[in-house]
Structure formats: C-alpha cells, structure tokens
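Usage

Read records sequentially. Each one opens with the input sequence:
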Amino acid sequence: MEGSRGANLKIPVFSGKQGDYVVWWKRFKAYGACVGFDKCMSETKDPELPANHAVELNPARDEDKLRLGAVRRNNLAMSAFTMAFDTPETMSFVDEGSTDKWPNGLSCEVVKALNREFNPRDAMSALEFRSALRTVSMSPKENPKTLFIQLR
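and closes with the structure output:
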C-alpha cells in the first residue's frame, strides 16, 4: 500500500503568475500530504536530515532510519517541485534549492525562494498591499469575498 500512496494524483503545475500562487500552493501542499513529503513544505530544514547528501546512513540503526526517511521526503519534494515547474522562470526556484551540501536541492530552500517572490513579509510588501487595496472597488451586488481575490 505504501508504494501506491498518491499514485493517482497529478502534481499541480505552477504557472509562475502571482494570481495563481495561493491556489497552486494549497494544492501542492495537499499533494505533498498525500504523497508523504508534507514535513518538507516549510522554510525550516527538516531536523532529521543529515548534514549533507553524502553522509553514509545505516538502515539498521534507528537514528539513521529517521534520517533516511527525511532524505526520502526531501527527494520526493524536490522531484515534485521539479515536475510542478515547467518554465525556465519557475524552474529557477529548483535551482535556488541547490547547495554544495545538497546539489539536488533542499526543499526548504525552494519554499524560501517561493515565499520571497510570491508571499513576502516585509515592509515594502505591506505598502504595495495598501496601494493595491486603494484600487479595489465593489459594486453593491458583489460578494465581499471577491475583494480578497482581486488583491491577489
């Protein structure tokens, strides 16, 4: 059963457009939960990952079993990111995940790069949000929920 986990799911593909990010990210996280790499969907490196990809791990040792699981999750996440990005611009996020210690990439680094681009949390972003908020208008018949969709 473990091998078929998420076998019928398609990896959500990201267009690279700001307006598509929120929906894509939710779908991608749901995919990760089904396939088993949801622990890798944050900006924080999985604490069970070894220091680098070249560390020799022994599956007979309990501590190494945890590390092997973390490596597997990271590899699944990096593979999914690679398949989710189909333009040179979006594929650059996979490249940003590569480090000397992890040449195939760390998923947490990809998440950081995505958040920097599409979900920034700095003062300039707050100003840009306020500026965008000023341009939004609603007619009396519109649903207020659409206000938030317009801001994306």
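Summary fields computed downstream for this record:
- Residues 62-84 form the longest helix (23 residues).
- The two ends are 39 Å apart (CA to CA).
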